[in-house]
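Lecture 7 notes: from sequence to structure.
We start with the chain below.
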Amino acid sequence: MVDQVAIGINGFGRIGRLVCRAALANPHAKVVAINDPFMDINYMLYLFKYDSTHGMYQGSVEVKDGNLVVDGQTIHVFSCRNPSEIPWGKAGAHYVCESTGVFTTTEAASAHLGGGAKKVVISAPPKDATPMYVMGVNHKEYNGSANVVSNASCTTNCLAPLAKVVHDNFGIVEGLMTTVHAFTANQLPVDGPSKGGKDWRAGRGCGQNIIPASTGAAKAVGKVLPALNGKLTGMAFRVPTPDVSVVDLTCRLEKPASMAQIKAAIKAASEGELKDILGYTEDEVVSADFTHDKRSSIFDANACIALNDNFVKLVSWYDNEWGYSNRLVDLVLHMATVDKF
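Predicted structure tokens for the same chain:
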């Protein structure tokens, strides 16, 4: 592991702030710069320090000379609208977390390279063919050739490790995924026009409705696990909870397997090659039990059912904010071992 990889963050929203917290908590990472043209630095400090879901930041945070100082470490703060104008190079940021939700193609995110960044990791599924990497699934395929990559979505990070274990052991013929997903910042608290006005249901009040939604998370598994390409698709239900979501994978197996065999394979993976990424529990858990859980996916053994030995429903939880943010930092650290800047 390389020492202290320097990270810059563009966009200080939910994911940007939690990536910052995750990086600060990791001894191998350091945040050297943050860019957000729409937020006053004192408001940055406030939103970073106080979090309604994940609690108050326990370290010291202050504003000094136009920068944030967190636990004695200076983080440069910029307010550039054009990514190419952000002085990442001068701040010493080799890797940029692109978490605005705006620059989600290689062409758009490459603008950060003009400011001196060496690599960009998009904290969302890309809108083009930008390579996606999911820790524990295909991250070892990163060879340093791409300057812009994607950390996929939080749901793909939950589903892909589970699907990989099931497919490696029993083979997935086909499957449907449903994610029961916590509401997010792009939804509305009361009824109103949705962003873009195309998805009418998305504009309904998120605090009082279960809202069906589309998601590309299942299809994206086929991008990180080519053996499953075209075999999975899915949808989402957005529900009135602030954090923690759950994936239901209903699939047909190539090799017949009892639920006990499936559980044993997933448990073994959670204690072996996917330790700290895929979890396993037999406890009688609910969503709140996974708030601030760093793992990508926690398999709920007692929530799973089988129609027969070839047709099963598997359930796995994830903190769609904190788990994902930690994986993004992990991906950056892995990239650094390959890039060796």
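Points to note: The helical segments are 14-24, 41-49, 88-91, 106-109, 154-170, 217-224, 259-271, 322-339. The mean pLDDT is 97.
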